[in-house]
Model the fold of this input.
Amino acid sequence: MLCFASNYIVGRLAPGEVPPIGLSFWRWVVAAIIILPFTWRGILEHALLIKFNLKLYFLLTIFLVIFGNTTIYLALNYTTAINASIVAMAEPVVTILLTWLFFRETIAKSQAIGVLIAAGGVLIIILRGNLLALADIEFNAGDLWMLASVSGFASYAAFLRKSPKEIPPLILINIIAVLGVFFLLPFYIWETTTVMPMKFNLATVISVLWVAIIVAATAFFLWNVGIREVGANKASAFIYLRSLFATVLAIVVLGETLKAYHFPAFILIIAGVYIVSKAKRQAN
Done:
């Protein structure tokens, strides 16, 4: 979640406008190239198993790269960061719903309570301590893109269990990165020729390298390991830590001010995630 949170900071630091599909396309290109030297032997070794599960990997790529990741950049062209954050809070709930619907996995009462407590902490940060401000929130088309993103990430987390255990998490990320590049290529060409091209300068290159190495490669590798170890439902609660880490990074890196409402928010998030982490994983 710390790696995921850095994605927001890079977005604040990078000056100018970056085309959303272009950013998504190049982050997966770079991620695929960087990971490949560490995975090519394993890919060859598991080639038949990968081929047998190719439909699943197509599906996971669509969930993660197309709906989960790219739609965030599209959403932020139309909606505010506050709206996007509020919609994103639905992700753990959607994950729990999908794992129950498709795999009949249930959650313990303590997990549900922990999710609600952590969500309350995130809501305090989003609304800056003024819960009455929730009544003034107006939603728009960008929020529909965020709903698509939430659905994509949640579906990826739910269906990741179907990937064979023999395929290591890093190889899985490399497969998804390569497939993601091919899926995004037509959209990238369209965006470059009809909307705006990706401008390559020092700022954009550093930004792409960061989101490729730290977010696309490292964060999703750790995310895959975490989901395999504790299950999608328990892992989804840790998403709330992303808001906590993003706030702390904004204070440390961007010089934003620590406010009084941050303290109860942090306590609620940490307490909620701790409660979820202590709950036993429910059997399918």
Summary: Residues 83 and 143 are 7 Å apart (CA to CA). The radius of gyration is 19 Å.
